[in-house]
Specification:
InterPro entries: rSAM_sf. The structure is a single chain. The chain is an alpha+beta fold. It has one domain (4-60, 87-110): pyruvate-formate lyase- activating enzyme (Alpha-Beta Horseshoe). The protein contains three helices and two strands; from the N terminus they run H-E-H-E-H. The chain has a two-stranded parallel sheet. Helix 2 links the parallel strand 1 and strand 2 (53-58). Helix 2 packs parallel to helix 3 (90-110). The two termini are 28 Å apart. 9% of the residues are buried.
Length: 114
């Protein structure tokens, strides 16, 4: 398991030697909530000066994976779309969507052209 300390070291050392750093974030893992999202935002804030770009994607289940339901969610013709969360109770799904809005707002404000 990679620690937060190792992430910080990797970002800072990479920037120090002159390599542009892109933070790739996947949001919406099972059991992710507003608190874990705030931890992600706090880490981005701490590393802001080392980050050149930010990429954000959303957790997606794949056929054959343990989380893939027998009757999958559809959004037009795709298995999953950003307006949906493929796990948890209705309350958990709503919390993840609200947390996602918070994360997107932070990224757009702090990394607008990145």
């Amino acid at each position: 398991k990679i620690t937060v300390s190792e992430i910080k070291d990797a970002f800072n050392l990479t920037k120090y030697v002159g390599i542009n750093v892109k933070a790739l974030i996947m949001h919406g893992y099972p059991k992710e909530d507003i608190n874990t999202t705030k931890e992600t935002i706090a880490l981005l804030e701490e590393l802001k000066m080392s980050i050149s770009r930010v990429g954000l994607t959303y957790f997606t289940y794949l056929p054959g994976s343990p989380i893939y339901p027998s009757e999958h969610i559809t959004c037009n013709t795709s298995v999953y779309c950003k307006e949906q969360v493929p796990w948890g109770s209705d309350k958990e799904k709503e919390e993840v969507l609200e947390a996602r809005k918070l994360l997107v707002k932070y990224i757009n404000k702090n990394f607008p052209n990145k």
